[in-house]
């Protein structure tokens, strides 16, 4: 790619990254690996799962097993939701390009989501260590600030994905937002499925 490192550049210049990505083919194995990592980290970042883990109702082995199973949500989103959202985009004046839509998913949602996922897992790890070992009140304001920054990053990722989706579908932002609502609906279905998965281990 001609743009700088897309892992960091996507946060500030999503249109430029997607334009560049659209001119290159994706390595299928890399796509699968990245989507699995995204699914794994997103599953481990699920707050209800983390709560059950902190309460001792889910063991570390069960947590890891749930994460492995949840990792498959990544490829499902990439191939399934990517195709559906791509086709639906044509109904809102978009080009209906499934490949372009999948690239926007990979570069503007999965890649920043993976980076943020590591921070979320790190945040959870610090909370767990503080709860069971350190028991330090001085970490509370730090963790609160950490949580606030994570919340801002979550919102910004959706903004980045919206811009990237608009570029991939060649539509205005408000039309891309309509398409995004469909993806959000799919996301809610995934959350319900993840919740059912967690319930199996509790």
UniProtKB/TrEMBL annotation:
InterPro entries, per the entry: Yip1_dom
Keyword terms: Membrane, Transmembrane, Transmembrane helix
Main subcellular location of this protein, as a coarse class: membrane
Pfam families named among the record's database cross-references: Yip1
UniProt keyword S-adenosyl-L-methionine present: no
Domain of life: Bacteria
All copies of domain Yip1, residue ranges: 10-193
Annotated localization: Membrane
Presence of the UniProt keyword Iron in the record: no
Sequence intervals crossing the membrane: 30-49, 61-85, 105-133, 145-165, 177-201
Any one of the GO CC terms: membrane
Membrane-topology descriptor: Multi-pass membrane protein
Protein name: Yip1 domain-containing protein
Species: Shouchella lonarensis
């Amino acid at each position: 790619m001609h743009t700088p490192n897309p892992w960091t550049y996507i946060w500030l210049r999503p249109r430029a990254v997607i334009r560049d990505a659209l001119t290159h083919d994706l390595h299928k194995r890399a796509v699968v690996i990245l989507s699995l990592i995204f699914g794994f980290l997103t599953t481990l970042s699920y707050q209800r799962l983390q709560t059950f883990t902190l309460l001792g109702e889910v063991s570390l082995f069960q947590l890891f097993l749930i994460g492995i199973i949840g990792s498959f949500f990544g490829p499902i989103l990439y191939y399934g939701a990517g195709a559906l959202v791509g086709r639906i985009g044509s109904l809102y004046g978009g080009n209906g390009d499934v490949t372009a839509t999948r690239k926007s998913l990979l570069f503007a949602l999965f890649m920043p989501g993976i980076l943020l996922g590591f921070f979320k897992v790190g945040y959870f790890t610090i909370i767990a260590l503080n709860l069971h070992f350190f028991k330090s009140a001085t970490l509370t304001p730090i963790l609160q600030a950490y949580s606030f920054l994570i919340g801002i990053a979550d919102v910004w990722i959706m903004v980045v994905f919206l811009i990237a989706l608009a570029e991939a579908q060649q539509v205005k932002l408000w039309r891309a937002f309509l398409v995004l609502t469909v993806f959000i609906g799919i996301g809610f279905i995934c959350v319900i499925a993840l919740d059912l998965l967690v319930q199996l281990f509790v």
